[in-house]
Design brief:
The complex is a heterodimer.
Chain A lengths: L8 H40 L4 H15 L3 H16 L5 H26 L3 H9 L4 H31 L11 H11 L3 H31 L1
Helix pairs in contact in A: 1-2, 1-4, 1-6, 1-7, 2-4, 3-4, 4-6, 5-6, 6-8, 7-8
Chain B lengths: L1 E10 L2 E11 L4 E5 L6 H8 L7 E6 L2 E2 L7 H6 L1 E4 L11 H11 L5 H14 L15 H13 L5 E5 L7 H16 L3 E5 L3 H7 L2 E6 L2 E7 H6 L4 H12 L1
Parallel strand pairs in B: 3-8, 3-9, 6-7, 7-8
Antiparallel strand pairs in B: 1-2, 1-4, 4-5, 9-10
Helix pairs in contact in B: 3-4, 3-5, 4-5, 5-6
The chains are: A mainly alpha, B alpha/beta.
Bound molecules: adenosine-5'-diphosphate and magnesium ion.
Adenosine-5'-diphosphate binds next to helix 1 of chain B.
């Protein structure tokens, strides 16, 4: 039984600057990975919906391949195996970022694919009828609408991505979670740090999800 | 200016166009009518290559639509098209709708595009609504914006696919009036429509389609004076009852 009297807030306060560094890394990784994987996911979605067989296959294989692997394995793979292939050291942050982008792109691909399919064919037709090329029709007509329709789901997936960034401890990166673990073990203050970490994740993700819901309601009006 | 020669098209095993042959001269207005599912939309979409066809030939201003070497985006930019459901871009204002292709396809500057856009909005009677989004406009207004958007490309011909079918009755005339003016100004037009009053007033020729075939292709006077086929007769009697 843990007594509240034992709960040492001081430990957390002292560790705050260090934990903040970890949080910055988590947020930076989340932001970059989200941007990268939404971009790549959109390209994959266009490939899956393309009329060219080869592109369809590449898209389908990519999605099915990465959705069959644990994210942890992908991160590992990039950190330990890629240096063997390229015969050189890779930066932990960069390799984790690449792993995240490739992995998450599979999920964002499927989101963007249904987003693109939700736009009526007439929209693309009217783009083409004006003389826009395929790339222009996608860029100016179809994708902005698909993106807007899918925004709540894209944000929800990004929240999951944020939670998943805690996996980077396996390559020695100090994200928020890892920093909390480090302090907990160093100061033997497991309860304080884990409660605090849980609280931080909960509050951030809860309010992020709440904002998504509000956004969703606004969009449906 | 627009020539069809023995155009055949299949969806899988279903033949949607059968040996369609006709032509539209410069400045001519041709109305295409016929029962639903007879291939009118398909035929008109073949003209600007939105739908591919397997056999025959279609040429616009001497350019073969089906040929591999044809630059379809360029050809399409010279042919305006108006759809039944308007198909304005909902995330763009009326003016942005009209300017997008002017800027991206014709390479006009934003100022040039806006000036041309304003002229055309004035012309279709919506001069002060350029800042509105499609969802803020009535169906009739949206369709007029769509016509202005097509005209902004300075097309050599305009295609209309049932431009008034999705409109409330009280808005049909505002769109037909714009189209009539356009016809008067000498625009080459192909219009799929069931508005027989419009056909009578505006069309030079009427094409009647049924089950993928061009059954009638006659001058307007002949078409309404003495329909030759039973199928056209039946169709007309149904339509004109309303
Ligand atoms: N993408 C498609 N795939 C298969 N059949 C189609 C497709 N589009 C249209 N059709 C069929 O082709 C026929 C002609 O369609 P359409 O040209 O739209 O007729 P209309 O415009 O005269 O009503 C219809 O029977 C329709 O069901
Ligand atoms: Mg039709």
């Amino acid at each position: 039984m843990i007594m509240l009297g034992d709960f040492d807030f001081g430990v957390i306060v002292t560790a705050l600057p260090y934990l903040w560094d970890g949080m910055q890394l988590s947020l930076l990784l989340t932001g970059l990975a989200a941007v990268g994987s939404i971009f790549l996911g959109t390209l994959l979605a266009l490939m899956r919906l393309s009329s060219i067989r080869l592109f369809q296959w590449i898209g389908a294989i990519w999605v099915n391949f990465f959705r069959s692997l644990p994210l942890l394995l992908v991160i590992f793979w990039f950190y330990f195996l890629v240096p063997l292939i390229v015969q050189g050291q890779v930066d932990a942050f960069e390799s984790a970022l690449i792993g995240f982008v490739l992995f998450e792109a599979a999920y964002f691909c499927e989101i963007m694919r249904s987003g693109i399919q939700s736009i009526s064919r007439g929209q693309a037709w009217s783009g083409y009828a004006l003389g826009l090329k395929y790339s222009q029709t996608m860029r100016y007509v179809v994708l902005p609408q698909a993106f807007r329709n899918m925004l709540p789901i894209l944000l929800t997936q990004t929240i999951i991505l944020f939670q998943d960034t805690s996996l980077v401890f396996v390559v020695g990166l100090a994200d928020f979670m890892t920093s909390a673990v480090t302090v907990a073990q160093r100061d033997s203050r497991l309860v304080e740090l884990y409660v605090f970490a849980a609280l931080v994740y909960f509050v951030m993700c809860y309010f992020a999800s709440l904002s998504v819901k509000i956004l969703q309601k606004k969009m449906h009006k | 200016m627009i020539e069809f020669k023995n155009v055949n098209k299949w969806y899988g095993t279903f033949q949607v166009l059968k040996e369609c042959t006709s032509s539209v001269k410069k400045g001519e207005v041709v109305v295409i009518c016929g029962p639903s599912g007879s291939g009118k939309s398909t035929l008109i979409k073949c003209v600007n290559g939105l739908e591919p066809f397997q056999e025959g030939e279609i040429s616009v201003d001497g350019v073969s639509v089906g040929a591999k070497e044809t630059n379809l985006p360029k050809l399409r930019s010279q042919i305006g098209m108006v759809f039944q459901n308007f198909e304005l871009f909902p995330h763009k204002t009326a003016m942005q709708n009209i300017c997008l292709a002017q800027i991206k396809v014709l390479g006009r500057s934003e100022d040039e595009a806006n000036t041309r856009g304003q002229e055309l909005l004035d012309r279709v009677g919506l001069g002060d609504l350029g800042y509105k989004y499609p969802s803020q406009l009535s169906g009739g207004q949206q369709q007029r914006v769509a016509i202005a958007r097509g005209l902004a490309m300075d097309p050599i011909a305009m295609l209309f696919d049932e431009p008034t079918s999705a409109l409330d009755p009280e808005m049909i005339n505002e769109v037909l009036d714009v189209m009539q003016q356009l016809a008067k100004s000498g625009m080459t037009m192909m219009v799929v429509t069931h508005e027989m009053g419009f056909a009578r007033r505006v069309a030079d020729r009427v094409i009647f389609m049924d089950e993928g075939e061009i059954v009638e292709d006659a001058t307007t006077d002949d078409f309404f004076g003495k329909p030759h086929s039973d199928r056209a007769q039946l169709f007309l009697s149904k339509i004109l009852e309303h």
